Amino acid sequence: MHSYCINKLLNLKEVKVKNIVHADTFAKIFIQTLPREQKCPCCGNATKRIHDYRTQTIKDLPFQEKNCYLVLKKRRYRCSCGKRFFEKYDFLARYQQRSVRLTHSIAEQLRDSVSLKYVAKRTNVSTNTVSRILDTINYSCPSLKDTVAIDEFKGNADTGKYQCILVNPKQHTVMDILPDRTQSHLSEYFRGIDRSQRNRVKFFICDMWQPYVDIAHAYFPNAQVIIDKYHFIRQVTWAIENVRKRLQKTMPVSLRKYYKRSHKLILTRYDKLKDKNKDACDLMLHYNDDLRKAHMLKEWFYRICQNPKYAIQRTEFYEWIKNAECCGMKEFEKCATTYRHWSKYILNAFKYGLTNGITEGFNNKIKVIKRISYGIRNFKRLRTRILHSCN
Ligand SMILES: [Zn+2]
Hints:
Nucleotidyltransferase, domain 5, elongated, binds zinc ion
């Protein structure tokens, strides 16, 4: 009964525990298997003849917060053909010095936002071993669904400064990480995806980066291109911020500080401000014609975004552009030019109500991964870690 419980506690099938030794920092568990008839790997005949024993020390999952070693009495058989061979064990892969379940545990721990060094320390292996295990994890891009969203992040990998993240916004999953956002890399990547799969895509969400749109037209003939809401609204935010900064420079230092601290008042939707903040905002706009105009344009644009009727959004959007184009503020004129250039695809955002909002969460996770891994340069590893931890 006792040995039955100990075996159960160890949780390795067909293994007998012979002894357990505890030291301060480690535990050693001495194990052995029962002899069994074996099939010779050379001639295929069955044999029961034991040749000799060797002892192997195997790293296993930590036990009671101590490093744990399995000391295995490995049995060698001899076949009538002359071949000598070791027993095979389910819990030990060939040529490995650690148990299969330790390898699995390391792979699982790599899903967390922790460094390779940290995993190595926790599992009593070298950082190199953890890297090698990371390299055996393989992700391929799942088949495309009707919506594809693409965005970039500054990964600084050995393949380029910016990497792309391909997302399924409806399923909230990261589909793939691409080595670089240049036209040639993107073409190469999407060319590799089966045409029938690409034809299935009805919506392609991206930001205002021309290669994305070119790619969408070339490889997704049935897709509507949609500019992600966050990316085009940001243009208005930048415009009003730049107006504020320009005006600030002409102000006395005492006032300047006040405006800098109050930039949130200007950016927040007026309706959402508390009454006392509304007063502060009013006061600020009262003394600045440009800022007042900029604020009006910003508020107007937000209202367009929230209007539930597409036909009205469309009309108002073009009205807005016309107004901004001749508002006399170069910041908003620039924004209007951008909007006119991308108008068709921005309107699609209103029309279909699809965004790439979930990518922001993934991008935050990527930042953490990059920080804890001291900026992974190796693109393949960066990709694996992202896919491994985001899905
Ligand atoms: Zn044989």
